[in-house]
Specification:
Length: 326
């Protein structure tokens, strides 16, 4: 596990109201940084290590889906080579059509009732200390898939009782009984992502509702769970909008927030406000340095996780309110 580094001392554009990634490319911008093209430092090759092959074999033998594959994550090589994966339950077809996501949208087939046990078997084979499980949205099911969620958590508990379980759930269309069924299974961390600021919700996640997401997180917090959420930067949001979401999340009792630079997974996905670049006034490193200072005033403890050489997996800013002095 990487050691969080202190944010770089870079003068930010404090209080700026322009979009996070509004800086335009000039004539001198390199072709690799042109909109719609991936810069060279973002391109990754799948490794051929024995551990990568072992992880792929475990996933394949257990007939499981992962975000790593279905969402076209560029970090699959690093994670699978380290013997980890993010499991995606309830199938591989989602009933929602979020503009940023690479997962297939459509009418899902019948869910697999034996999937929870196979997820538990895979986690045991990988000997994971901490596992992250997520799912597609299954809005056609009366409970949104809550029963399979609960059975998966319970199966992992039986198979590997020492494994910490972090679940990244949908909103279950706001149904409190479905959420309660998941919480009754006692995951260690309950995560639900707001993804973007309120102004962009309709285009980024049209079937979701910002207020409903806050309600899911607040209910989990009130039930005594460690809660977590995430935002993508680079969709056209402003500094003030990000700060307002931060305040809303704290009011809902969210403990952990992660911020990541949005990277367009496919040509059919929503375009980012600009292409990622090594050096930019609005780069994740510079914005994170600004956010870490302003958000500490809002009683968040901030840690920037980013090496000196930017990579696809490193554009993540993690904020943990549990370590704050109240």
């Amino acid at each position: 596990m990487r050691t969080p580094a202190e944010p770089a001392a870079v003068p930010p554009d404090e209080g700026a109201a322009e979009p996070v990634a509004a800086e335009q490319h000039g004539p001198s911008a390199s072709p690799a940084a042109a909109p719609g093209r991936r810069p060279p430092w973002l391109r990754v090759r799948l490794p051929q290590s024995a551990e990568f092959a072992r992880t792929r074999g475990i996933v394949s033998r257990n007939r499981l889906h992962t975000v790593c594959e279905s969402a076209a994550c560029p970090n699959i090589g690093e994670c699978w080579s380290a013997g980890t994966a993010t499991f995606m339950i309830l199938g591989n077809v989602c009933t929602r059509s979020c503009g940023f996501c690479n997962v297939i949208t459509g009418k899902p087939p019948e869910y697999d009732a034996d999937e929870p046990d196979r997820v538990a078997d895979a986690i045991a084979s990988m000997n994971l200390v901490h596992v992250v499980i997520t799912s597609v949205d299954r809005d056609e099911l009366p409970d949104g898939g809550a029963e399979i969620w609960a059975r998966t958590i319970e199966a992992v508990r039986r198979k590997t009782p020492g494994t910490r379980i972090e679940v990244l759930i949908g909103d279950f269309k706001g149904d409190p009984e479905s959420l309660a069924r998941v919480l009754d299974a006692r995951p260690d961390v309950l995560a639900h992502n707001c993804e973007t600021v309120p102004r962009l919700q309709q285009t980024v996640r049209p079937q979701a509702r910002y207020e409903r997401s806050l309600q899911v997180l607040a209910r989990a917090h009130e039930a005594g769970f460690v809660t977590k959420s995430s935002l993508m930067l680079g969709l056209g949001e402003t500094n003030d909008e990000v700060r307002e979401v931060m305040r809303d999340l704290r009011q809902a009792g969210v403990d952990i927030l992660t911020l990541g630079q949005y990277l367009r997974p496919a040509g059919t996905s929503r375009s980012s406000a600009t292409s990622p670049r090594r050096s930019s006034r609005s780069s994740p490193r510079r914005r994170a340095a600004w956010l870490s200072r302003t958000w500490r005033a809002d009683r968040w403890s901030a840690a920037l996780i980013m090496p000196s050489e930017p990579k696809a997996h490193s554009n993540v800013f993690s904020v943990d309110a549990r370590t704050c002095v109240r």
